Amino acid sequence: MAMKNFLLFFLCLLPLPAHALTIRDDLGRAATLDGPAQRVIALYGAFSELILALEAGHCLAARTAADGDLPELEALPVIGTHMRPNPELIVALRPDMVLQLAGRQEAQIQTEALRALGLNVLTFTLESFEDIFRVTEKLGLLLDRRPQAGERVRDWKARLAALGKCRRGRAPVRVFYEVRYPNLLAAGGKGIVQEIIAAAGGENVVREPKKLVRYSEEALIQAGPEVYIIQQGPMNPAAPPPRLRPHYRDLAAVRAGCVLYVDEKRFARPGPRAVAAAEELARRLRLVADGLAPHPPSTE
């Protein structure tokens, strides 16, 4: 027993391999690799997009069912959905790192199941631009793409700073962001949509500090947004124009033709496209601030 303890003590003193890499995630868990990750599976599409932005798409070993719209990912094996990945398929693809999004408990249960199978899993929060910057730098370290990560983060920060200069001296435009209709679901005062709205010079009329807020039509009418934003995508695939909905035609934004349609994956996914989404929204909100309707009423 004494010899066994001595050997364990001796092994603990041995240095890690020369190129060993240890990364700690947002839950405080650490993963150590012998070197940069070579085969990565991202269980949330924004991580895949960030990896593509780092010119490391060759490191992606698979994708989720929701991410086939990006040409760079289309041919990759599909391992299920973000919330319900297939553990057997993931293990068979032999990833040296799996990336998961922090948040919903169901996703974390899946994450623990993958860890129990011996896989390295890192979990990160993505709710703000600062989160995007931080996670990009972590991925740069993980994939040996630190120069690319630094370049991307500097570019994104510079573009957001430019938006900040453009909105100086301008009153914010009051907006409502529709996540889903019917059973109205709104973007609240937390999350990347809120960050995009603020960066673009908007003021979200929904103040609850949550990413998603169930909202009543009565509260919407009382809030009286100047611009009504409708996301189009899997969560809101066939929303009718507000002018055709009972009660909505009396909203000032609808009467003025200030109804904007935006792409869900550009605006609601906290990835590289979020900065471009803020720039797009800023241009459209400036039309409102300058007294010009973003769309002719016939295209609402």
What's the number of helices?
11
Radius of gyration: 22 Å
Question: Residue share in helices?
Answer: 25-40%
| Tally of discrete structural domains | 2
> Average pLDDT across residues?
91
Distance between the termini: 78 Å
CATH topology of the largest domain: Rossmann fold
| Tally of strands | 11
Order of helices and strands: HEEEHHEHEHHEEHEEHEHEHH
In short:
This protein is an alpha/beta fold and 300 residues long.
What does this entry look like structurally?
Strands 6, 7, 8, 9, 10 and 11 form a 6-stranded mixed β-sheet that branches. The N and C termini lie far apart (78 Å). Helix 5 runs antiparallel to helix 6 and helix 7 packs across helix 11. The chain has 2 domains: 138 residues, Rossmann fold; 131 residues, Nitrogenase molybdenum iron protein domain (Rossmann fold, 3-Layer(aba) Sandwich). The C terminus is likely disordered. By secondary structure, the chain is α/β, with parallel strands linked by helices.
Key structural traits:
alpha/beta, 300 residues, 16% strand, six-stranded mixed beta sheet, Rossmann fold, three-stranded parallel beta sheet, 2 domains
Task: Please render the helix and strand layout as text.
Blueprint: H1 2-13, E1 21-24, E2 30-33, E3 40-42, H2 45-53, H3 87-92, E4 97-101, H4 105-116, E5 121-124, H5 129-142, H6 146-166, E6 173-180, E7 185-187, H7 192-199, E8 202-204, E9 212-214, H8 217-223, E10 227-232, H9 252-255, E11 259-263, H10 264-267, H11 273-289
Parallel strand pairs: 3-4, 4-5, 6-8, 6-10, 10-11
Antiparallel strand pairs: 1-2, 6-7, 7-9
